[in-house]
Amino acid sequence: MTDRTVPSASPSVSPAYRGVVLAMLLLVYTFNFLDRQILGILAGPIKAELGLTDGQLGALGGIAFALLYSTLAIPLALLADRTSRTWVITVSLAVWSGFTALCGMAGSFWQMFAFRVGVGVGEAGGVAPSYAVISDYFPTHQRARALSIYSLGIPLGSAGGVLLGGYIAQAVEWRTAFIAVGVAGLLIAPLFRLVVREPARPVLANDAVPVSAVFGILAAKRSFWLLALGAACSSMCGYGVAFWLPSLLMRSFGLDLLGAGQFLGALLLIGGVAGVLLGGWLGDAMGNRDKAYYAWVPAISYVVGMPLFVVGVLSDNVGFAFALFLIPQALVYVWLGPVLTAVQHLVPAHMRASAAASFLLINNLVGLGLGSWSVGALSDALTPAYGVEALRYAIVAALGFYLLAGLFMALAGRALRKDWVSA
User: Fold this and answer.
1) What is the sign of the dihedral through the CA atoms of 405, 72, 32 and 342?
2) CA angle at residue 135 from 131 to 140, to 5 degrees?
3) pTM for the structure as a whole
4) What angle do CA 358, 359, 364 make, to 5 degrees?
5) What is the pLDDT along the chain (423 residues), one digit of tens a residue?
6) Is 126 exposed, middle or buried (0-12, 13-18, 19+ CB in 10 A)?
7) What is the full DSSP assignment across 134-157?
8) How far apart are CA 337 and CA 113, in angstroms?
């Protein structure tokens, strides 16, 4: 794939155009999470119509999506590093949007499982190349903030998924919600391709580096493993809670589908957006003085936020729970800008997409693959003892992974000082 190019992080690229590129990448990432998280708010009506258990619902939100999403991310990132990152992102958006629309036609668990696998296949090519494009367009001292702005797609897309899904399902039916967001993504794909130019990269003799060599470089660095394991523990809890929180709000707090969507949507828009932006600012401000803070800032955030989450889940008042959730919801998103920036600086510039995919492989296989499934399976196991409240205690148990994430990030700080590659 040949393409028009612009010099990487060059002064000839105007700040305005960099902003346009970042805005388009953010839009695509927003749809990435909108299509991914809409299943959570629609879990109730899907469970009722298709006759599913909590464990099966968790599998649809976890392993069905993560199985090929995680493993295909590496070859697609390698393809992006060797050809055109913008083309890989464009085609990926079209594929995952098409499969999201097909989810609205599923008539059984296995049909829905297959379509969610298809969504994961498409999304496998979206994130790692986007990280690399941002690193190509933005200089080192701005990358944590740029990656944080890009990462706003997580709370914005998640909020959009629960709000749109809730409204559409309440007004029409759950199938229409899947079809509507899928078609919208298909319309955005050609617009992205027209607007975003491929950033130029240095032509090196060893530019076509095999992925095994990239992973070999990362595997030799202690900081990579600690960052990846810390992020995986965080994501296991984060994805599990995000998927099941709408169901908890309906089962234990008495909200209807629309009310649960409004609660979670507001939580993500206020707390999530604030946390992502705070992480980017802190990452650039503190990490530029001492690289260890790219890991230490998230470590502190996890340890502070986890107890507040627990108290909120165990409360019996929906307003009190919302107030308690706001602060930890922000704190558990702080890691995105600093950690993603750190991973981009563990390898030379021409290996960035492959490095990001290697990181995401570990993060998503553990976090996304097991998070929602493990909470659902534990809820099923606890149901004989706790009845409708089983899900509440399953979520509390999962929140312990935030403390483990904080430990891994705390240990990663010193290793980052010697593993950092300036570019």
Assistant:
1) positive
2) 135
3) 0.72
4) 100
5) 444 444 445 446 788 898 999 999 999 999 888 877 788 778 778 888 888 888 788 778 777 777 777 777 778 877 887 788 889 999 999 998 999 999 999 989 999 998 988 888 888 788 878 888 888 888 877 777 888 888 888 888 888 887 887 788 777 788 888 898 899 999 999 999 999 888 765 544 445 566 678 878 888 999 999 999 999 999 888 888 888 888 888 888 888 888 888 888 888 889 888 888 888 888 888 888 889 999 999 999 999 999 999 999 999 889 899 999 999 989 988 988 899 889 888 988 777 777 877 887 888 778 777 788 888 889 889 999 988 889 999 999 999 999 999 999 999 999 998 898 876
6) buried
7) HHHHS-GGGHHHHHHHHHTHHHHH
8) 32
Q: Residue 305's closest CA among 329, 339, 281?
A: 329
Nearest partner of 22 among 33, 34, 13, 12, judged by Cα? 13
Of 157, 374, 192, nearest to 269 by C-alpha is 157
Length of the chain: 423
Hunting for tokens 């990152």 — which residue is that? 85
Tokens of 203: 């032509």
